[in-house]
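Morning. Coffee machine broken again, so started the prediction first thing and wrote up yesterday's gels while waiting. Chain of 362 residues, entered below exactly as on the submission form.
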Amino acid sequence: MKLLSVIHGPTWGGAHNQAAALAGPLAKLGVETTVLLPLEAEAAARRLEAAAVAARRLPLSRLRATADPRPNLRLAARSPAQIRAIGRLIDELGVDVVQAHGPTNPQAAWATRGRPVAVAWQLLDSRTPPPLVRLTMPYVVRRADVIATWGEALAELHPPARSLGERCVTVFPPVDSARFAPDEARRAAARARLGIESGSSAPVVGSVGVLTPQKGHEHLIEAAGVLAARGGPSPPLRLIGAPSAAHPAYVESLRDRAAALGRRTGADIGFADPGDEVHSLVQGIDVFALASVGRSEGMPTAILEAMVAGKPVVATNVGAVAELVADGVTGILVPPADPRALADAIERLSADAELRSRMGAA
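Came back before lunch.
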């Protein structure tokens, strides 16, 4: 069987990670995976190919949640040609199943019309505004042979998905447990790469995710400022993620906010583009923190990776995060956009090594 996974996002994220993690196991089951990416996703294509996953690139536009009509007018104008190009690729590869991602990217499903190809439609996050969900989901349920949602919460946020009955399936993002297992041998090297002074025993707070506003990194920086203002220990914070091409000014805004709060970039707050080394860098942190904003996440792969690595989690209670993190057992859940709540949770875990160990083991 041949699978074509069509991913419209140019920056590495959950869908790309899933394709890389599952291509090998699927191959053992006789499924050959090809990932289709937009032209600008050169870095993501290289990472997939390094993981022995075939990657192709074509012009792929995306529906935008914006009051500016121009991006979506361009999408409407370009979609017919893009649909024909995807159709030609389906025919060239002899595709049996197309995997579409998100309710606002219908081109791949359109390309299957008139072809004996099944559509597996995956809903990975909660970013789509409710009006767009209501607009697009009727088409999704008509065209999808199966819908996979990352968590029960996403099925609830896209209610027509439930109309498929047993063909609406809840899944978890895949994590290679051997790759992310706790590894003290890699800890010192990871901390050095994260800019932690040799010999420092200070607990390190780390966040993993693309540097984009939906991840709420500014709230983590604000939380670091709250901890510093309290006068007690303020653990070093490391933001591990690639910059987002769609938000070129965001990283600079984070640096500016850190400076305004008196947090030194590189010491108090550091940035690291992990490439494909997340599994190594996560060994160097002691508390994993994710401050994603409301209507952003499904099930963040980074949370599961941190949990496999034995790290306690501080996370905002958004999307399906509560289906991953048992509050008070494997981590602490806080409201979104609440730096003080983040600071309280980080302070609690940073000050209590036994609690970190217990939650990490759980």
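The chain has a mean pLDDT of 95. Going to sketch it on the whiteboard this afternoon.
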